[in-house]
Amino acid sequence: MRSVFLSAVLLFVFILGKLGYEQIFHHEKIVSKAKNLWQRDFKLAGERGRILTKDGAEIAVDVPSTSVIVVPAMIQDPTSTAQILSEILVCDADDLYQKLSNRVSTQKLQPEGRNISEEQSQKIIEADLEGVILVQDSKRYYPKGNYLAQVLGFSGIDNQGLAGLELEYDEYLASKAGDLKIGFDAKGHLLEMDEEVIAKGKGMNIVLTIDDTIQSIMERELNNVMLRYAPTQAMAIAMDPNTGAILGMASKPDFDPNHYQQASQEIINRNLPIWMSFEPGSTFKAMTFASALEENLFDMHTDTYFDKGYEMVEGARIKSWKAGGHGLQTFLQVLENSSNPGFVEIGRRLGLDLLYDYVTAFGFGKKTGIDLPGESSGIMFEKEAMGPVEQATVAFGQGLSVTALQLVRAFSAVVNGGTLYQPYIVDAIVNPLNDEVIEQFLPQASKQVLSGETTLKMQEALESVVANGGGRNAYMEGYKIGGKTGTAQKAVNGVYLSNEYILSFLSAAPIDDPKIVIFVAVDSPQNDVQYGGTVVAPVVRNMYEDILNYLKVEKVSEQLPKKTTWLDPIMIEVPSFIGLSQEECVFQGLTMEFVGEGNTVLEQYPQAGTVVNEGGKVMVILG
Description:
Layout: H1 2-25, H2 27-38, E1 39-44, E2 51-52, E3 58-70, H3 78-89, H4 93-100, E4 107-108, H5 118-127, E5 132-141, H6 149-152, E6 154-155, E7 161-163, H7 164-168, H8 170-173, E8 178-183, E9 196-198, E10 205-208, H9 212-229, E11 233-239, E12 246-252, H10 265-268, H11 272-275, H12 285-294, E13 304-307, E14 310-313, E15 316-319, E16 327-330, H13 331-336, H14 340-361, H15 388-395, H16 404-415, E17 419-421, E18 426-430, E19 437-440, E20 445-448, H17 452-468, E21 482-492, E22 495-509, E23 516-523, H18 532-550, E24 571-573, E25 591-595, E26 601-605, E27 611-613, E28 617-622
Helix pairs in contact: 3-4, 3-5, 9-18, 12-14, 12-17, 14-15
């Protein structure tokens, strides 16, 4: 008995000693384990990185919101709670009841309880539902709505990138979630202990190469195109030809990323300038012409070609768009008149090997590698599959398929000195805490395609196309615009559609020192003549009117004069009226409008030297 008693005493002492040791030396560890049992975690969404244009405009941000979390063990009457919540959250009460009855410690109600409105939050507070907790959350917000929609993409309910840049750069934009820890006992009752918050993280900010002003101008003009011509779709892309940086990119129809659930997947996933591949038509002739100049195959001013209206290639009759052809032309006029038979001859002079080498050197037939998802590579013949007919059609932009981005990239090399650049749309990744640049993306030259001498010739030739050829509707007094129009018949499943065309205009300005390259294409427009020079060139001209002024491009006094026809309006240069009396303000062909009191001209709009259409209005301020 004594031995048993001593053993029990020793065991009791050892137990007390162990308890004392643990309480004294392992106190924090034990409390931490206890808290883990008591506390229940409520996730606090992290703050996703912002997306900004290069000039600082915020186009994707996180804004605070409220979400609903339930603690099923605390809910005494799940049926009644589900009914009340379903009325507030506008959802099915039976589905909600199932969630409130789950045997889990906590549950976030989603999607019905995510990012609810302030009105809904207030109603839940007033309902005072036991076991229903409101926590701070965040949701993605796109301040400019449809602006840059297909490029930006969107993030889902869990702030995970699902499309566009939000998907491509999700690993940088994503943030670590925080935790709100609240103590409950085993029966789900709140414990009297301090709440604990583990801070949420912030994702990196993404700065784009997109220029907010240029993008806004392009969006405006494309919206006008959709209203006026009701096309199937339309697109525009602008690039800095000297770096490969994308300055603007737009697709229509578009959608509002704030309400992406309401848009069709076809619209969401079609970032047209990089996704849609199509026959380029005559815009491709700029690259063919440049390749021939690089090989010194003709002098564009003195060498000639006679366009009889067609060329025969292995029994195939390739026609000119002009009945009877253009007759005897210099090769510069072949480009100005967009003569298909003339380009068949240029393709012959290049030969299959050289033509194919230049087409691939310009980057056609493979992806450009831009940092956006969904890029198409286009379609180019295998060299072995090309016969004389394929060689002829490729020379004038038919029989191959390209993207707008590929065209803009290649055209940039034609006008910038011959360098092919890697296109990119993200300029920098920035730490949101201190604005430190984590990663800076710099221009990358892929290869030298043309010589500087050929580029100078092409600048002259492309300006001549706008002054004398199919691009006349893009001509601007004081600005040297160079470009090439395109009218390509649509092909579906290998069959060309009747009266279905993709009209386009590929251009650069100012052509003698290019600051920007713009491509606009309109798919199957209605209510007008189906020519790129008629429909699209005026749209691009409208863009340039605002963009060149924004870029502070100075007007020049010397440029190629515009070749006019009887259809063209008479243009009048506005004289200076400042300092004259009201009676002296008379100029034939102008309409005068007088504003203010007095008899002396203090100001006038437009200013002296501006060129306007005959009958244009001049507002004169009197004082």
